[in-house]
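Thread amino acids onto this structure.
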């Protein structure tokens, strides 16, 4: 196209001048255009999807290190006909846990030189395979600086000129001679782990139930490229960090019920002392049997258990009071039936639920409830919760983690043709998008999801003390458990019923119509279209729902259009599901859903080379090898190339002078 000076409007010229700072000469523009065009033709990078980690940091760590079987797959490709099964497994373990495994292996080998030679050769070959689909520059950036030069050299030597083994041997000889073989092996293992997966997607629920969500968060913060779709448990913690009393009460209850106070006390440095003192004062001599903690490690003493139950009851009652206040100030959320304390007949010890039926309460010792004003906190309860608000807001580590969740996270993500979201999209039974009105405006589908996310962000970022901030925090608790919340996607959360009513019928939490609707491929496509997606390789990816694999339930819905990849890390649920859940890998060849066996602990993983056994559930082979040009990154690169093309024109036609950035 022939351009004239007037082809560029002022805004375009301003942008080109900015770009000219980075590419100050015609040559530098041309070089970058060649580079970007080369990248477009490379294979698509590998994506790894995980969800519902629920604080199980050891299993999470192992899945991360093994990339859900992707490393083992490369080992098998290269060595299955040269090495035994046991040797392949040991090599895989070495890559996952190099420091620990090396120590063990070195204590057993007789010929150290031979061991180093063989191991380094194998690792370099794996590295070669793993890095072959990246540009040299990208690989270089991922290398540890101290070994960058030598690894780069090993990966890019032309072996038509060199004898491979001889060449390696010489380099390795030197590395051994200067006492750096161990370090070098560790560096190579880390490079393989770093490059095997380009991007990690966490489809929600990092927090609650398992032992140390804070450790998982630290690991995620170290990751080179991660995005997070907020789960209902995550948004609850984010609301707590923002200072929402109701979110804080719920976080405390979840943690106490699972007896995993380490996250709060050791992880985030938040003291539970004031709650313990309050619980001991008000609930010492009352029935707390319905509030027993769920899990018990061997070290838990009966006196700790009694205290936990008291604390759990004390915080539950605070939560139910705050729920009543929440529902009254938020009629838009339509959660009236979650108010229980005003439906209790305190003399008879019964309650009338929304279904009109009367139930006997299994616990009627409620020392802090005034039947005439049941949602009013007593002074001591107020003091306890106020103190927690300050300590949650003051926990530096919690604030750091939550800021990261806001930066890298969102309610949904559209990426490389897939729609990722933790729960579901609010829909009517007739497969239309459900409409909601907030402040007189109606939202549905994608616009609703965007709106809910924007309100949640206000809960953390709006001005301290402002109405907007407080309302935003209410949106966060709504997202945790509200009727039609896309993160929760169930009709109601029956926390009250689970503690106060024996009849398990009342405990049921009906799933949203979304789950029935998405059994149909056609309806999955309606959802995908709403998010701008179409074509054979588009999928919806959800977490949130543990799949009862042992009862024959499948994680694949909508004729393969929807994958539910609840990672099943949560130990408490493994009895029900029969497996430890699913993870997904999407590379240039296939999209592969793997089912995992429970993780047997780091020690066994290292000493017995025990991997998390994975079986492939579905592998969608792509009809051609996907290239970057076909992916989201390709679109961005093409747009960049277009801009560079314009800059080139501007240089060539004297519209912008070379090296003129500082003029
Ligand atoms: O099984 P638990 O830990 O008692 O928790 C039950 C509660 O957790 C929930 O399942 C929410 O957690 P998930 O998002 O992990 O499903 C609620 O629906 C339910 O009331
Ligand atoms: Mn969930």
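Threaded sequence (663 positions):
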């Amino acid at each position: 196209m022939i351009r004239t000076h007037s082809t560029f409007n002022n805004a375009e010229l301003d942008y080109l001048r900015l770009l000219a700072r980075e590419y100050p000469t015609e040559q530098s523009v041309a070089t970058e255009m060649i580079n970007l065009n080369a990248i477009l033709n490379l294979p698509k990078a590998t994506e790894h999807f995980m969800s519902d980690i629920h604080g199980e940091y050891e299993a999470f760590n192992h899945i991360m290190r093994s990339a859900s079987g992707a490393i083992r797959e490369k080992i098998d490709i290269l060595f299955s006909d040269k090495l035994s099964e046991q040797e392949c497994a040991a090599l895989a373990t070495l890559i996952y846990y190099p420091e620990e495994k090396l120590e063990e292996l070195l204590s057993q080998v007789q010929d150290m030189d031979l061991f180093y030679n063989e191991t380094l050769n194998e690792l370099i070959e794996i590295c070669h395979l793993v890095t072959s689909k990246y540009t040299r520059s990208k690989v270089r950036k991922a290398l540890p600086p101290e070994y960058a030069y030598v690894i780069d050299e090993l990966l890019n030597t032309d072996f038509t000129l060199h004898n491979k083994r001889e060449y390696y041997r010489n380099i390795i000889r030197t590395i051994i001679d200067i006492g750096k073989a161990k370090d070098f092996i560790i560096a190579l293992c880390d490079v393989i782990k770093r490059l095997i997966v380009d991007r990690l997607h966490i489809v929600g629920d990092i927090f609650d139930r398992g032992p140390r969500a804070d450790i998982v968060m630290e690991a995620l913060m170290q990751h080179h490229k991660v995005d997070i779709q907020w789960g209902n448990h995550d948004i609850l913690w984010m609301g707590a960090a923002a200072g929402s009393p109701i979110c804080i009460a719920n976080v405390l209850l979840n943690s106490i019920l699972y007896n995993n106070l380490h996250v709060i006390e050791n992880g985030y440095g938040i003291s539970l002392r004031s709650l313990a003192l309050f619980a001991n004062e008000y609930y010492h001599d009352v029935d707390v049997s319905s509030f027993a903690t769920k899990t018990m490690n061997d070290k838990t003493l009966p006196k700790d258990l009694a205290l936990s139950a008291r604390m759990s009851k004390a915080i539950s009652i605070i939560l139910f009071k705050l729920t009543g206040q929440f529902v009254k100030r938020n009629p838009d959320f339509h959660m009236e039936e979650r108010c229980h304390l005003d439906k209790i007949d305190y003399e008879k010890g019964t309650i009338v639920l929304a279904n009109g039926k009367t139930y006997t309460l299994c616990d009627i010792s409620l020392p802090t409830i005034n039947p005439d004003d049941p949602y009013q906190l007593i002074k001591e309860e107020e003091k306890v919760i106020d103190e927690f608000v300050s300590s949650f807001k003051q926990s530096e580590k919690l604030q750091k983690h939550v800021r990261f969740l806001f930066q890298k996270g969102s309610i949904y993500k559209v990426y490389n043709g897939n729609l990722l979201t933790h729960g579901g999209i609010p829909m009517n039974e007739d497969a239309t998008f459900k409409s909601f009105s907030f402040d007189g405006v109606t939202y549905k589908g994608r616009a609703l999801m965007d709106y809910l996310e924007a309100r949640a962000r206000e809960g953390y970022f709006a001005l301290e003390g402002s109405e907007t901030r407080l309302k935003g925090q209410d949106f966060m608790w709504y997202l945790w458990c509200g009727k039609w919340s896309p993160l929760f996607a169930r009709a109601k959360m029956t926390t009250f019923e689970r503690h106060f009513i024996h009849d398990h019928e009342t405990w049921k939490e009906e799933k949203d119509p979304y789950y029935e609707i998405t059994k149909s491929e056609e309806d999955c496509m309606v959802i995908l279209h709403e998010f701008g997606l179409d074509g054979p390789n588009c999928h919806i990816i959800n977490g949130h729902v543990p799949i009862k694999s042992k009862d024959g339930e499948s994680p694949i819905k909508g004729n393969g259009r929807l994958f539910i990849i609840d990672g099943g890390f949560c130990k408490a649920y493994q009895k029900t599901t029969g497996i430890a859940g699913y993870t997904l890998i999407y590379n240039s060849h296939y999209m592969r859903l793997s089912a995992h066996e429970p993780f047997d602990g780091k020690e066994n993983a290292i000493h017995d080379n025990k991997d998390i056994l994975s079986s492939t559930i579905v592998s969608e082979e792509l009809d051609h090898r996907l290239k970057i040009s076909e992916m989201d990154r390709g679109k961005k690169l093409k747009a960049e190339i277009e801009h560079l093309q314009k800059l080139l024109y501007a240089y060539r036609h004297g519209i912008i002078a070379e090296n003129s950035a500082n003029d």
